[in-house]
Amino acid sequence: MKYFIALFIVISSTIVSHAQSADDLLDKGYDEYSNGNFEAAIKLFEQAVEKDDSNAETFYLIGVCKSQLNENDDAITYYDKAIALKPAYAEAFYEKGYSYFIMNKYTEAITEFSRALKIKPDYVEAWLNRGSIYCIMGEGVKAKNDWDEARSLGAEFPEQECN
């Protein structure tokens, strides 16, 4: 009798785990991401993609986790998949730009931040980061303009000098 009960529990848990929807897996992956468990989150997001490969957010979140693991080339690949599904995904363009920024690919980063801003003109972080890259590249006027725009949108940060 104990054998049959144990077998029932194993079979039931297997059926339940296979019956998880893509949304359930996405939610669990997001919980893992929120707790800093990026590898576990990626596995759950990948399982969600196996069930539904039409959700741009899932690819975006895999990219964010990859970026957190400093796997920025892979992250960019996933951001591109998210953008292919949702061409007006400002956050994916922003994160793609940030990955390029981390990789010191400043021209590409500016392009992606600019794409994010075209979709979402009030994207404060994109204004700030694009301004910072302009400053790094020695384009002080453009940096100041972007930082001024960020301030006009409510960002508070000390006045920056860019030579």
CATH fold topology of the domain at 22-91? Serine Threonine Protein Phosphatase 5, Tetratricopeptide repeat
**Uncertain residue segments:** 1-18
Largest sheet: none
Distance separating the two termini: 80 Å
Cα-atom Rg, whole angstroms?
Answer: 21 Å
DSSP strand (E) fraction? under 5%
Provide the residue-averaged pLDDT. 89
CATH homology group of the domain at 22-91:
Tetratricopeptide repeat domain
The helix/strand order is HHHHHHHHH
Helix/strand structural class: mainly alpha
Instruction: Report the principal-axis shape.
Output: elongated
**CATH architecture descriptor text of the domain at 22-91:** Alpha Horseshoe
- DSSP helical segment count: 9
Instruction: Please write the CATH class name of the domain at 22-91.
Output: Mainly Alpha
Name the helicity range: over 70%
How would you sum up this structure, described in words?
This protein is mainly α and 163 residues long. The protein has a domain at 22-91: Tetratricopeptide repeat domain (Serine Threonine Protein Phosphatase 5, Tetratricopeptide repeat), CATH 1.25.40.10. Helix content is 76%, strand content 0%. The chain contains 9 helices and no strands. The protein is elongated and about 55 Å long. Mean pLDDT is 89; it is low at 1-18.
